[in-house]
Write a structure and sequence with these properties.
The chain is of the alpha+beta class and about 250 residues long. The chain has 2 domains: about 190 residues, Beta-Lactamase (2-Layer Sandwich), CATH 3.30.450.20; about 60 residues, Orthogonal Bundle (Arc Repressor Mutant, subunit A). The chain has 11 helices and 7 strands. A 7-stranded antiparallel β-sheet has the order 2-1-5-4-3-6-7, with helices on both faces. The longest helix is centred in the middle third of the chain and has 20 residues. The protein is elongated.
């Protein structure tokens, strides 16, 4: 997990910092919202993107994660190595964050500060060991003079939508609406598949026969059959119907 965390820092750590006075002002603005009754089953946080330390974590963090607010404040984002389900952390860090960052960093500062991030993944509850589906909403609380993010705020809550994978959405707040500029889901079971295997799955979903797939891929029917056997083995299914049902809930790029 340390290797994954180092990749996480590479993607999300900011080189720019915030003054103590500015930070104090921002914390004063956020504290009232964090005490409202609606957040009693939510993990509300403010994160310093330069130090990767939490500047504030709501007292209700333990009910969502099994970790106390003090745990978060002491460990900073290094706590994610313990908190996030390993497959979630790996997919978020290696697949989603780079793509989301590319989309957002290409925005002008006036739009970047209006970006709203929605993530779906799993916590591994410290107390119970159970996997908990989580939805997280966050945004940039502060940009520096060059338009680089230096502080973010967010809220994590248990989700009633179960998806065996991770998801990421980026929305931009416009004057009268929100515009989605990024939307992607990655199933846990899709990670081991090769590019060819993913192409074959898409063709199977279209209703293509093995013979048709062989012609489109310029390989023999026997080779297609071997690929399909490998797909079944990797995804833990035994027939086409099971495969199609699986990818319906776990989309494959």
């Amino acid at each position: 997990m340390q290797e994954v965390y180092e990749k996480y820092l590479k993607e999300l750590k900011s080189e720019s910092g915030i003054s103590e006075e500015e930070l104090k002002d921002i914390l004063q603005q956020f504290h009232p919202a964090a005490q409202m009754g609606i957040v009693s089953n939510m993990l509300f946080y403010i994160l310093n993107l330069q130090t990767q330390q939490y500047e504030f974590v709501s007292e209700y963090a333990e009910s969502v994660s099994g970790f106390t607010a003090e745990d978060f404040l002491e460990k900073g984002t290094a706590i994610l190595q313990e908190l996030l389900y390993e497959k979630s952390f790996k997919l978020l860090t290696e697949e989603l964050f780079p793509k989301m960052n590319k989309v957002v960093t290409e925005l002008p500062p006036e739009l970047m500060k209006e970006a709203i991030f929605e993530l779906g993944y799993h916590f591994k509850n410290k107390k119970t060991g159970e996997l908990v589906p989580i939805t997280e909403y966050s945004s940039y609380a502060k940009l520096d003079e060059q338009g680089r993010p230096i502080l973010s705020s967010g809220v994590c809550l248990e989700s009633n939508t179960e998806f065996e994978g991770v998801s990421g959405i980026v929305r931009i707040k416009l004057e009268k609406k929100q515009e989605v500029i990024f939307d992607k889901k990655i199933g846990y079971n899709t990670l081991p598949l090769t590019k060819t295997e993913k192409e074959i799955i898409k063709l199977l979903k279209e209703g293509r026969s093995r013979k048709e797939i062989a012609e489109l891929q310029f390989v023999s029917s026997h080779t297609v059959g071997t690929h399909i056997k490998n797909i079944y083995r990797k995804l833990g299914v035994n027939k086409i119907a099971e495969l199609l049902k699986l990818i319906e809930n776990n989309p494959i790029d």
